[in-house]
Design brief:
- By secondary structure, this protein is an all-beta fold.
- 0% of the residues lie in helices and 49% in strands.
- The chain has no helices and eleven strands.
- The strands form two sheets. Strands 2, 4, 5, 6, 9, 10 and 11 form a seven-stranded mixed sheet that branches. The protein has a four-stranded antiparallel sheet with strand order 1-3-8-7, with no helix packed on it.
- The chain is globular, with a radius of gyration of 13 Å.
């Protein structure tokens, strides 16, 4: 059974940092799996935040997080991370990781999704 489990969400002050983790089970990240982070704020559509290719060599970021967020993957641990720095109130959302078959970002279809983790940026 394929499963993605996010963790690391929390309440943080503006300017603070968080690191989200996405642990994958049921399949190995070694084999042509693209991982992406999405987020959805209340009343807004889901948006793509970042993506990392199966090799880990290619990363993609939305304009809203570029320069502040860093995505990385540790295939040995079957885990993908999203380091979030200089957080802003507009980063408040539920963050989801998703996996799709392929080598490059973005995947054509993200077949597997986690349950999400809440990030709240507020003073």
């Amino acid at each position: 059974q394929y499963q993605l489990v996010e963790s690391g969400g929390d309440l943080v002050q503006p300017g603070g940092s968080l690191r989200l983790s996405c642990v994958v089970s049921g399949f190995s990240l070694d084999y042509y799996i693209v991982i992406a982070w999405f987020r959805q704020a209340p009343g807004k559509e889901r948006e793509g935040v970042s993506c990392v290719s199966s090799s880990g060599f290619t990363t993609v970021y939305s304009d809203s997080v570029k320069g502040r967020f860093t995505i990385s993957r540790d295939n040995a641990k079957n885990t993908v991370y999203l380091q979030m720095n200089s957080l802003k109130p507009e980063d408040t959302a539920v963050y989801y990781c998703a996996a799709g078959h392929g080598s490059d970002c973005p995947a054509q279809i993200y077949d597997y999704w986690g349950q999400g983790t809440q990030v709240t940026v507020s003073s």
